[in-house]
Amino acid sequence: MKHPDQWALFGGKPTFAQPLHVGQLNLPQWDKIETTFRGIFERQWYTNHGPLAREFDIAFARHLGVKHAIAVSNGTVALMVAARALGFEQGEVIVPSFTFPATVQALSWAGLTPVFCDVSAATHTLTAEQARPLITPSTVAIAGVHLWGQPCAPESLAALAEEFGLALLFDAAHAVGCTHHGRPLGQFGDLATFSFHATKVVNAAEGGCIATDDDELAARARTIRSFHPGEHYAAVTARINGKMSEAQAGLALLSLAELESNITANRSRHIIYQQRLGDLPGMRLLTPEAHDTSNHQYVTVVIDSERAGLSRDQLALLLDAENIMCRRYFAPGTHQLPPFRDHPAYRTLSLPVTERLCRDVIVFPNGAPMTEDDVVKICDVVEALLRQAHTLRAKLERTG
Ligand SMILES: Cc1ncc(COP(=O)(O)O)c(C=O)c1O
Fold it and tell me: Is the pLDDT of residue 368 over 90?
């Protein structure tokens, strides 16, 4: 074990020679990518609803068990298109602040006014009990986020939305391959949106998708995603270029084919994290409920700084220097980011659980290129840092 002065933050050698990031690339092998790309070049069909994009729509819909999957250029565009496909150009949408800012930014772009809701401390997702008091005559929709792949109260939010005649959409950017009571998370709400960003468990470098069982919603989303005349037409008030290219669709298809093996490997690494970090003082790892399954892409830990001896930020600083690039998701919360933070409606907003999570949550690296030995080494470092917490905290406070 390193002596307190030997940690990289104080001039020692980092534990890892190369940075290990959260959201490691789950890229297929090069020969598979080469074959796919050769086909694209031979066909000379690069975009505009080519054969791979159409194949991906079908494959992803089948994977989710929904009628329609509408692939787009990224997860943010998926949310923008989804909001417009639901028919809204204005009105309030109840949404968590504790999410990647794109969730709120996209809905705001589409003309909706975010009404920030606090989240459950146990699941980090919003609940029907928290959303209910925020409903006003101007509310048109609830946008839940299946954060870390955890189901965002699908049944109780559906009941609430039905009671008040609201649309219900889910940002499922983190949730490819995750299920709730055996059902893929894409099956809940009026629609769900996905991201295939490079950091996601299924990735197309960039990419996204809208999933729905509703034929009309799907027709509108297809119309909005493209100005291309070859697409299906439905009555919509705005269109955009949100098409998924053939290169993206090729990567997405390869990545989808490897989803199960990537989840299995993620789960094995997550179990090591759980076994090694779960019993350390002040460390609480989020794990799926017995009736849910996860893709395990996110290893999410809530730190109780009193019990751990180090705050989340102090631990992250020490780990970063060791090239263990944990993420302080999501700090600050979206309501405390521009443009929302500067708006009078949000300036005095208090979301106690969100603010606590923004202070205490840290996400550890996982994903295909990582080995189980990497995880063991990361856990050794965390354990050693916590054992020396008292000395390290004093050192950090001295050095500012
Ligand atoms: C919860 C959530 N929603 C939306 C997005 C936006 O997805 P994209 O990066 O594909 O635009 C992300 C991106 O990471 C996300 O984490």
Answer: no
Cis peptide before 339, with omega less than 30 degrees from 0?
A: yes
Average pLDDT over residues 73-96: 96
Q: Is 124 in the pocket of ligand 1 (CB under 6 A)?
A: no
Contact 307, 282 (CB under 8 A): yes
147 Cα nearest atom in ligand 1: 1
User: What number is the average pLDDT over the span 266-275?
Assistant: 97
Mean pLDDT (whole number) for 53-59: 98
* Residue 229 pLDDT grade (very low, low, confident, very high; cuts 50, 70, 90): low
Taking the CA of residue 78 as reference, the ligand 1 atom at the shortest distance is 11
Domain range summary for the chain, segments of one domain joined by +:
30-257, 259-326+365-399
CA-to-CA separations, 5 to 1, 14, 19, 392, in angstroms, rounded: 11, 12, 21, 9
Topology given in CATH for the domain delimited by 30-257: Aspartate Aminotransferase; domain 2 (3.40.640)
Measured in Å, residue 73 CA sits from the centre of ligand 1 at 12
CATH class of the domain defined by 259-326+365-399: alpha beta
Ligand 1 center to 257 CA (angstroms): 21
Cβ–ligand 1 contact at 197 (below 6 Å): yes
Residue closest by Cα to atom 10 of ligand 1: 75
